[in-house]
Amino acid sequence: MTYLKNINYPELNQCIYVMWHSNQFIVHGFKDRAKTSILISNSLDGDIVSYVAQKWGFKTKRGSTARKGAIAATKQLHDELKNGENIAIMVDGPRGPYHEVKKGAITLSMDTGVPIVPVNWYSEDKTFREINSWDKMKFPLGPCKIMNLYGKPIYPQNKTEEELITEVKNALLELEQISPQKYKEAMESGLWKKK
Known about the structure:
This protein has helices at about 45-55, 70-80, 105-110, 160-190; strands at about 1-5, 15-20, 35-40, 60, 85-90, 115-120, 130, 140, 145-150.
């Protein structure tokens, strides 16, 4: 069984969750699934991910910067934000380059004023595996204690597009860097033993 715990979960009415493509299954830890739409590519892999995400209680929007449906998906996500919903975007997917932030989440944040919340997931269990793929996708393959680590909200006001891209990238890289220590602290505090 997988045991996923949230660290620093944002207490916001609304946000744009961002994560690396390698961490796309991180959404399993989100508390507000019914009011969160996930951007998923129009691909065969995307069909599978979309099916699973909907089974988990999320809404999905199909499209990406590299495939058909990008403009329609962006408009739908914009409408979701205007209606007070959350969205989730893998900022370097679906085709990379690896760990390079694309403009989608940035543009949506600047247009709506909704803050961006970076997220990383991490585990030291041997069952937490990494696929040999361009994005180095990580997922549990068996019983696993996983941590979702949330960064501070990034607000778009008075920032340029380039400044936001840099801030989001740095925040995601920092979350990766500090995750081992945060995981150790969570283990020592008995987080997975608490009811």
